[in-house]
Amino acid sequence: MTEASVPGDRADVVDARASRPATPLWLAVTIAVVFGVFYAYDVWEAVGNLVGLNIYAGQLEVALTAYGVVLLVVGIVVPLLAYAMAFWLGRRRSPLAQVVLFLAGYALVQALSADVAALFDLGGLDL
């Protein structure tokens, strides 16, 4: 084996990560709380959809199908999971990376919320 074929020392990689400045705790908490408000609003909206559509279906003397209820429950769970994943993936990253992760998760939540709204607004679906 030649010197060039030997993989690099893993200590160099660890040292490079250790020299990178960590995000201050107050900044990480501030970012998490600001985005947490947006995610919490989506959870609140999803709970409102679940309760409101059940009340509306009850007034019409019909019931939501299991598919409709599962879809509404998924609308509650997805913002919580997206927030948890963004928080977990960004816990040791720079502030910009944390913001980007929270924004990507929020974009996913908004896209799925729009899909749920579109499914319930279509008159042809029996939910």
TrEMBL record:
Q: Which domain of life is it from?
A: Bacteria
Keyword field: Membrane, Transmembrane, Transmembrane helix
Q: Where are the transmembrane segments?
A: 25-44, 64-89, 96-120
**This chain belongs to which protein, by name?**
Bacitracin resistance protein
